[in-house]
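Fold this sequence, please.
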Amino acid sequence: MKEEKAILNNKIQTIGLLLFFSFFINVIYGQTLPFSDQQNTGNWILNTDISDEFENAILNENQWLIQGRNGEYQSNFRGRPPSQFSTENVRIENGKLKLQTKWEPDYNFNPTQNNSVEKYENITTAAVISKKQFHYGYMEIKSKAAKARITSSFWTTGKQSELDMFEMFGDTRAGEANINWRKRLKFNIISWNPNNKYYLPDGNGPAHTRNIQADFNTADDFHVYGFEWTSEYIKVFIDGVLHPNGTILKSEITNNGADPDRWTTDVPYWIWVDSETFPWLGLPNAADLPADYEIEYIRIWDKKNLVNSEFFGFEKTINIDNDEKQWFIPNNSTANISVSNDDAFRWNNSLKFTHNGTLSNNIVAFSPFKSVNIPTDDYKVSLKIKKEPGSVINNFQVILEDPYQILDFDVSAIETEKWITVTKTFSRNVVSGSNDRLRVRIQPADVSSGSSTMYIDDISINPTSVLNVGSNNIEENKSKVYPNPLDNSIVKNINIKSKNAKQIVLYNAAGIQLLKIKKTTETLALPVRNLSSGIYFLSIISDKTKETKKIIIK
């Protein structure tokens, strides 16, 4: 009887640990932030439609397309000859997505790619593509390149445009050129628009290429690669640090606007991960293969928005009380204001205002009641505005209705033919009422005699307490844990640097507390020599904050 009771107690304890572990991991993932921005100064929110930790037994094909599945080939791309994509080369193993390249001379190869003379033969690879697009944000991947003469790539496609965050080439041969390739993130911005003046007669249209050199071989171990993508720049981070050559500015590439066709990354994108052969760099042989491109996770973040991004970006309806609602425009305003696909900052649509002559009444567009629901705080409203040349609109208002608050925007002097960000701050001393919504209004006094066309897009509302944190405070308060990962047969301590932390708590992967100590120095050396290989979690606690960081001991 005692033995049975002991077994039951052990089972209960095990279940309790598993539940705690599940809760602990969910809390951590719920707070997952870019490796380079653990304080979330960028105001990021995880896009769960595209992000994946690859912890399931098989790939979620509702979220991802395995290129070639059921004969579907995104962009009609079957692979770069002589290699061809195979659906059999994709698997999840040990919590990682693995894209395998094989030597398979007996595979049922397609004759050629797009009727070219290049043959598919001998080599199969793989590609996985997100089924949903996104537009601007932060892209992060933790991966290890394949150790063979094939690419391991993280890239995107959109309307007549391609952005390659990296193409890695795990060449195993000696020689300086091959050593450089083993450390390289080849970055590309490419236009596939035949009307682009940089589109070449051979069907290629590169707009910008940059070789970003890491200080390690990309096929030797897992590293975190991050990419902040905006309308004005792309920044490349390696293991949380901005690379010295990793800021790609729109103004730099377009020669301050002289060559606008060189910047083509303004469209929504699908995410790709794949392996290809680059014949001009050398081909793998049977002895090199099989080889795996391994991906621990893919995470995509959008800018946080307290109002519905797609609805306030004029793309979709909004569900309120189980009813799909649209923007409401009264009959006396429909001649002057509408949701239009003539131009957009993001995606396809924007709110378009036009007039010719004077206005006889207020022109308004209303979001539905309950579409704004924000607590008490200080906020910033941000909008993208584009005025056409000659437009004589000087002002417009954004009105929050419950409680009633008018925010006036002066656009008389903004640059035309260009999307401009305009902002206003406001405070809420009470929470949104049940009828809170947003109204865009143009009054007769807001326009001069003449004509105008103006577009409004991408409306957001966010607390200024997050948006206005100064960079000095960020660095001052940011905790650092290094080295991580670490080999405790070589490194005996892990360093925890934090100016304000008062307490450190260490947990194992099961959520069991292993250590709890006071932190009395700015940098604490925590001994790890007695810890076995695996994943651990550090809670770094100050009077006002608590950070949780994952550490890996090899």
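The CA atoms of residues 398 and 440 lie 5 Å apart. Confidence is low (pLDDT under 50) at residues 11-30, 466-477.
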